[in-house]
TrEMBL record:
<dbReference type="InterPro" id="IPR014555">
    <property type="entry name" value="RecF-like"/>
</dbReference>
<feature type="domain" description="ATPase AAA-type core">
    <location>
        <begin position="270"/>
        <end position="341"/>
    </location>
</feature>
<dbReference type="Pfam" id="PF13175">
    <property type="entry name" value="AAA_15"/>
</dbReference>
<dbReference type="GO" id="GO:0000731">
    <property type="term" value="P:DNA synthesis involved in DNA repair"/>
</dbReference>
<dbReference type="GO" id="GO:0006302">
    <property type="term" value="P:double-strand break repair"/>
</dbReference>
<dbReference type="InterPro" id="IPR041685">
    <property type="entry name" value="AAA_GajA/Old/RecF-like"/>
</dbReference>
<dbReference type="GO" id="GO:0016887">
    <property type="term" value="F:ATP hydrolysis activity"/>
</dbReference>
<feature type="domain" description="Endonuclease GajA/Old nuclease/RecF-like AAA">
    <location>
        <begin position="1"/>
        <end position="44"/>
    </location>
</feature>
<dbReference type="InterPro" id="IPR027417">
    <property type="entry name" value="P-loop_NTPase"/>
</dbReference>
<dbReference type="Pfam" id="PF13304">
    <property type="entry name" value="AAA_21"/>
</dbReference>
<protein>
    <submittedName>
        <fullName>DUF2813 domain-containing protein</fullName>
    </submittedName>
</protein>
<dbReference type="GO" id="GO:0005524">
    <property type="term" value="F:ATP binding"/>
</dbReference>
<dbReference type="InterPro" id="IPR003959">
    <property type="entry name" value="ATPase_AAA_core"/>
</dbReference>
Length: 385
């Protein structure tokens, strides 16, 4: 199942925007135009599925800090709204999940600056008609059972709890579980720490790791899994050699913990531990593990992956992104036009230029209100003809 579109309204610089999502999505633009807000809005949709929506909003400064920053029409409720459409590839069957949140909780139902979920809706698009299978209004949640009748969810939700996480994890509703689990498998990598205490530099518990954790804390275990479980590090070895001037990884068989080192050709007598690597080197290895892991997640989002990387690392990074795009949808936010051009060279997908409109809202240059760019709309018109 793939992500087909993202719609956001009332979030930071996103006044109201809908965009079609392709297999590879690259966003470039000046500082402060709102590129990262698009990324964060999609991450919030995932957090709603995982049940961490309120926590993510709190980490951003609270509900009052994340609402649309421009002028609003009087008399309308102040809301943040996010919707995602998911579709099975090569079919007309899809789902749409929408969450609306605002301020002012009912007495005793939440803290003043928590997001208060006003409405949620999960609909299934069967090609000929759209059917609501989950509805939430305030603290009440209802769902459509196997006989097509709406039933009340047996637990009254707190105002900051998401219905998708509750119903999807309850075992009561297969469609909600599918959408919840699909979104939960998305991976967002937005700024690996590279300081001395970074999780990337730490040893990992010796547990097989099919994919990289979002904070990179199981990096050594991901590498050990590739080396000693799959027995294939060809892509990883090529990426490391290209980015680190002929260096290679030393990945010993783990005992209680997994560790790794890097051997540089000018110092072949010993390996350099993760603690000894530069910021750019350790960040590149984190990106390599995210993009070349034993199991690739269905959706990988990278926010400014070029940060701290030497310019010579951008080409190997683009190679890894193109390799991962064979198995996953890719979303890249970058300040580096050079990286965007390299990804275009390898995938044929042009970057989307993010701009600020006169009212301060974020938009995609040349994008139509339907969420399509001119070339995408023209291709659909040709297909219809």
């Amino acid at each position: 199942m793939k992500l087909r579109s993202l719609t956001v309204a009332g979030y930071r610089s996103l006044k109201s925007i809908r965009m079609e999502i392709g297999d590879v999505n690259v966003f470039v633009g000046d500082n402060g135009v709102g590129k990262s807000n698009l990324y964060r809005a999609l991450h919030l949709a995932q957090s709603a599925a995982e049940g961490t929506f309120a926590r993510e909003i709190a980490a951003e400064g609270g509900m009052a800090a994340v609402l649309w920053t421009g002028t609003r029409k009087k008399g309308r409720p102040v809301r943040l709204s996010i919707a995602v459409e998911l579709i099975y590839e090569d079919t007309a069957l899809g789902w749409r999940y929408t969450i609306d949140a605002g301020l002012t909780p009912p007495m005793g139902a939440g803290f003043p600056f928590e997001p208060q979920i006003k409405e949620e809706r999960l609909s299934i698009d069967q090609g000929r008609r759209v059917v609501d299978v989950m509805k939430r209004a305030g603290q009440g949640l209802s769902y459509r059972d196997a006989d097509g009748r709406m039933q009340e969810y047996p637990v009254r939700l707190l105002s900051s709890e998401t219905g998708l996480a509750a119903l999807g994890g309850s075992g009561l509703h297969a469609e909600a579980a599918i959408v919840r689990d699909t979104l939960a498998r998305f991976r967002f990598y937005h700024g690996f720490r590279s300081d001395a205490g970074s999780p990337l530099r730490a040893a990992s518990l010796a547990v097989t790791a099919p994919m990289l954790d979002m904070d990179g804390s199981n990096l050594a275990a991901v590498m050990a899994t590739l080396k000693h479980i799959r027995g294939d590090t060809v892509d990883l070895d090529r990426a490391v050699a290209d980015a680190l001037k002929g260096a290679w990884l030393d990945i010993p068989l783990p005992d209680r913990e997994a560790r790794f080192g890097v051997v540089f050709p000018q110092f072949p007598q010993r390996g350099f531990s993760a603690a000894e690597l530069s910021d750019g080197q350790i960040r590149f290895l984190g990106l390599a593990a995210a993009l070349l892991a034993y199991r690739i997640p269905p959706f990988i989002a990278l926010n400014e992956p070029e940060a701290s990387l030497h310019p010579s690392m951008l080409s190997p990074l683009a190679d890894m992104i193109a390799r991962a795009a064979k198995d996953a949808q890719i979303w890249v936010v970058t300040h580096a036009p050079e990286l965007a051009d390299l990804i275009t060279d390898r995938t044929g997908v042009r970057a989307k230029t993010v701009i600020r409109q006169e009212d301060g809202s974020t938009w995609i240059e040349s994008m139509r209100l339907t969420g399509q760019l001119p070339d995408e709309a023209d291709e659909m018109d040709d297909d219809d003809a």
